[in-house]
Automatic annotation (TrEMBL):
GO terms for molecular function: metal ion binding. It comes from Rothia aeria F0474. Transmembrane segments: none annotated. InterPro entries: DUF34/NIF3, DUF34/NIF3_sf. Homohexamer. Keywords: Metal-binding. A divalent metal cation binds at residues 70-71, 109, 244, 248. GO terms for cellular component: cytoplasm. It comes from the Bacteria. This is GTP cyclohydrolase 1 type 2 homolog. Belongs to the GTP cyclohydrolase I type 2/NIF3 family. Residues 132-151 are annotated as: Disordered.
Length: 298
């Protein structure tokens, strides 16, 4: 049996970035190592969607040497980080617990086995391509097409309701559930999706002829205008609006498995865990009563 060693933080970060390259990240993003001594040993890695007080506490309790989150803690920056500020509190908790922090945001959105590929897997989509901003990722000596969002085809057409139920079964439970625009019996074959906030991609969705677009954080005016335009054109692309955090959670388990396997190939051994905490900010909903279907759905 080949003896394995404990990697240091620099080795873990290098392996992770071989799987989810930082160069795939958008120019405005802040993915990468936020804190941590690169020579420190890392025996355990903890994964979560968000860097919150609760996930930082969880990482330290697990004895993690690294917390990998999807959302970068310092995406919008910070001039001061005292422990009286939430971002400072998270960083102090991790540093004092000897745990580094790594953000993997739009690079994980775009990459192989990332956020959007995990959503495709959950829906069994085939013939997948990037929805927008196509890029190339080198892995295993081969180049693979990747990019923003995904478009794919269902093995067999489903009704909009059945597809929504399949998605709901795959996602972690959240207070808001799913919001759906379209006729429940509408037949769906071609699916466009983008984990996280995706209402900037409506033109790309139109260009690929999708029957439904799955994303999160849909605002009233962009969603309403999209549905009205679909109505006028007679194309009728439906919308499924998810919890932001839920839509970006499915890739984490696979990311841990891939990181563990790649480090093993390099002679290193780690364990990992994925947070089961609900980092969606909402706790409950109150019904305003039974509503008639939208005027934009015919």
């Amino acid at each position: 049996m080949t003896e394995t060693t404990t990697p240091n933080l620099a080795q873990v970060v290098a392996a992770f970035h071989d799987l989810y390259p930082p160069q795939l990240a958008a120019g405005w993003d802040a993915s990468g190592l936020v804190c941590g001594r690169t020579a420190a040993p890392v025996r355990h890695v903890h994964f979560a969607v968000d860097a919150l007080a609760a996930t930082a506490d969880e990482a330290v309790e697990h004895g993690a040497g690294l917390l990998i989150t999807h959302h970068p803690l310092l995406l919008r920056g910070a001039q001061f980080i005292p422990d009286t500020d939430y971002k400072g509190h998270v960083l102090h908790t991790l540093i004092e617990g000897q745990c580094g922090l790594l953000g993997a945001h739009t690079n994980a959105d775009a990459a192989i086995a990332g956020v959007n590929e995990a959503l495709c897997d959950a829906l069994h989509l085939t013939d997948r391509t990037a929805l927008a901003e196509p890029q190339t990722q080198e892995l295993g000596g081969e180049e693979h097409p990747v990019g923003t969002g995904r478009v794919g085809t269902l093995p067999e057409p489903l009704t909009l309701r059945a597809l929504s139920e399949r998605l709901a079964d795959a996602l972690p439970a959240t207070a808001g559930g799913l919001r759906i625009a379209g006729r429940p019996e509408q037949r769906i074959s071609r699916v466009a999706l983008c984990g996280g906030a995706g209402d900037s991609l409506f033109e790309a969705v139109r260009s690929v002829g999708a029957d439904v677009y799955i994303t999160a954080d849909l605002r009233h005016h962009p969603a309403s205008e999209f549905r009205e335009q679909e109505l006028v054109r007679g194309t009728g692309c439906a919308l499924i609006d998810c919890s932001h955090a839920a839509s970006e959670s499915l890739w984490l388990q696979r990311a841990g498995e891939r990181l563990q396997a790649l480090l093993a190939e390099r002679g290193h051994s780690i364990t990992f865990t994925v947070s089961s905490l609900n980092t969606d900010p909402w706790d409950f909903t109150v019904s305003t009563g039974s509503a008639a279907g939208s005027a934009s759905t015919r």
